[in-house]
């Protein structure tokens, strides 16, 4: 069954890179967003910016974060904190490097009574994040995300 999206059916995302004259550059997104990237020192760079592999993991985490928040709003659960950490493993196979896996861990803390809804939002996040969905056929993604029920803001202990 096809699910009707409440968002645009097609989206396009643009970025530009400009070499810094040395071992990295700047990513330009839109008119005001700039992110410096560089080659890590272990690969002959200066290490004066985010490594592209870190940007890759950050993109996956950001997509998971935003997907969770979309479902959190729909379920109207009280979100106290959301923290995700990610690790991408890259291996040299004798010819070049490939990302061989991504591990995502983290913790979601929600208000009292929202544990089940938060568990559902985590499940939906993993299912619907479009970046991890796009990667799943070529790069395995492992998850270890804990949900903790905390006290709602203004609540009593």
Short note summarizing the structure:
The chain has 3 helices and 6 strands.
Q: For this structure, what is the CATH homologous superfamily of the largest domain?
A: K homology (KH) domain
Structural class: alpha+beta
CATH class descriptor name of the largest domain: Alpha Beta
Number of domains: 2
Distance between the termini: 45 Å
Largest sheet: 3 strands, antiparallel
Q: How helical, in percent, are the residues?
A: 25-40%
Strand element count: 6
Averaging pLDDT over every residue, what do you get? 93
- Number of helices, where a helix is a run of at least 4 consecutive DSSP H or I residues: 3
Low-confidence blocks of residues? none
Q: Secondary-structure element order, as H and E?
A: EEEHEEHHE
- The name CATH uses for the topology of the largest domain is GMP Synthetase, Chain A, domain 3
CATH architecture descriptor of the largest domain: 2-Layer Sandwich
Overview of this protein structure:
- The protein is of the alpha+beta class.
- It folds into two domains: 1-50; 54-149, GMP Synthetase, Chain A, domain 3, CATH 3.30.300.20.
- The protein is 28% helix and 34% strand.
- The protein has three helices and six strands, in the order βββαββααβ.
- It has helices at 52-75, 115-128, 130-135, and strands at residues 16-19, 24-29, 33-38, 79-92, 97-110, 141-149.
- The strands form two sheets. It has a three-stranded antiparallel β-sheet, with no helix packed on it. It has a three-stranded mixed β-sheet with strand order 4-5-6, with helices on one face.
- A hairpin with a 3-residue loop joins strand 2 and strand 3 (33-38).
- Helix 1 (52-75) crosses helix 2 (115-128).
- It is globular, with a radius of gyration of 19 Å.
- The protein starts with 15 loop residues before the first strand and ends in an 8-residue tail after the last strand.
């Amino acid at each position: 069954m096809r699910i009707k999206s409440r968002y645009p059916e097609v989206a396009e995302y643009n970025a530009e890179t400009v070499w810094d004259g040395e071992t990295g550059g700047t990513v330009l997104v839109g008119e005001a967003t700039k992110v410096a990237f560089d080659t890590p020192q272990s690969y002959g760079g200066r290490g004066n910016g985010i490594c592209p592999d870190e940007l890759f993991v950050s993109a996956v985490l950001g997509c998971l974060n935003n997907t969770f928040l979309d479902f959190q709003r729909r379920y109207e659960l009280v979100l106290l904190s959301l923290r995700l950490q990610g690790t991408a493993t890259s291996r040299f196979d004798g010819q070049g490097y490939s990302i061989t896996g991504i591990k995502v861990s983290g913790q979601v803390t929600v208000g009292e009574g929202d544990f089940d809804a938060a568990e559902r939002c985590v499940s939906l996040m993993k299912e619907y994040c479009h970046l991890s969905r796009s990667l799943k056929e070529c790069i395995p993604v492992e998850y270890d995300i804990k949900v903790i029920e905390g006290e709602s803001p203004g609540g009593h202990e």
